[in-house]
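Q: I have 439 residues here and want to know how they pack in 3D. Can you give me a structure?
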Amino acid sequence: PIAYERGRIYLDNYGCCISSIAQEPRILYQKPKCSKSEKIEDALLLECPLGEMLPNPSDYKPSLIVLTVQNWLLRLSADCGEILEKVYLAGSCCKFRYLSWDTPQEVMVVKSAQNKLPAAARQAGIQQSVLFHLAVFQVLPLSFIGMLEINKKIFGNNVTDVAISNGILIVMYSMGLVRLYNFQAISEQFMEQPFDLGCEFNWNGEVGVVGKYPFGLPCNIKITDIPPLLFEASSLENAFQIGGFPWHYIITPNKKKHRGVFYICSLKDNALAKNGIQDMKCCSLEPDWIYFHPDMSGRIIHVGPNLIKVLKLKEVENNTDQTEIAEDFIIMANRENCVNSSVTVTSSGRVVKKRLNLLDDDPEQETFKIVDYEDELDLLSTVAVTEIGADGRAHLDLRCNEHGILLKSIPLLESWDVVRKLCLFSGRADCVPPHKFPV
């Protein structure tokens, strides 16, 4: 994968780092080829907090947290690739594969792949009760908060995925159900014993060092009973988001016929907002997507093939208890020269009738592919593509985030295939259709 983070481009699965800040790109470091056992599965960029005293001088510089195939969590210098810290997570009992933020730049979550028994064990009737492991860390200085299991004896047989975000444990089920639990309350109620990295421990008869090979980390948060439920909702493909002010959530009714229809409801009482059903009624191969604006304004961005709507929540006139969804501004794709007529006349005068209408994201029409927000410059950027010919052409538009006014348009000279690969691996949750559980 190709990844971009804060002026650094990572190639060769984070083995090569190129600075893009200087006038000409330059290689910051190039690591030797590693074996398959050292392959990096996931990574997060870590930047030091402001106004805090940190134990080591290296902590004040950006670093890269990486997760390897063999369950090692490494903190690397972002400028030279030097290993600053090493933590061993666990043995072969589980395979950790994913890194994410609970609280950005403060609390990090390491998630395992779903535990599955070998086919022979399943045929023998052996049951697998533990589905996922989650290890939670405070970062800078790196410290271990706890590890917990997601057990189907506690949470049910139909669990398909799990995440921790903003202090909420999110559990997803195969029937489209999403349940939210208070992770802090869980850790306080079910924490058996706290542990510090590098300290000796005696756990279930084993003596070792926390975070060192071969013992790794103890699973010290044992959920023995179903925790109190904060909230639950049923949504197609577990698509569920929380945001806005006052708090609202976005779901798609849990029926395939409602695909592409979004309901915006109050988190307080589940009441549907006025104009809260958003449906672009677009006919396209790629679905439209919707999410709360990452600028913390409480607005909502709804992106379709040729239309971007920025929506806002406001009180209904003469009714302060209800909210209304109103348009803040709209961005349209440039399709002035597009003629979608069912009847055309050839140069010889022959009348040709089309049996099918063009899709809204037909490759020959300008179509929005990416919407991104730059927080430091407060810019909303969009990439629109017209795939005419083998490569296709695209342009990046920079807009005023408050009003959507076009400030600058930059044509992308490279082929769209190359640009698309760079964008999809950028690691930004707000530039491509969001994951199924962005809270």
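Q: Anything worth noting?
A: The two ends are 26 Å apart (CA to CA). Residues 76 and 82 are 5 Å apart (CA to CA).
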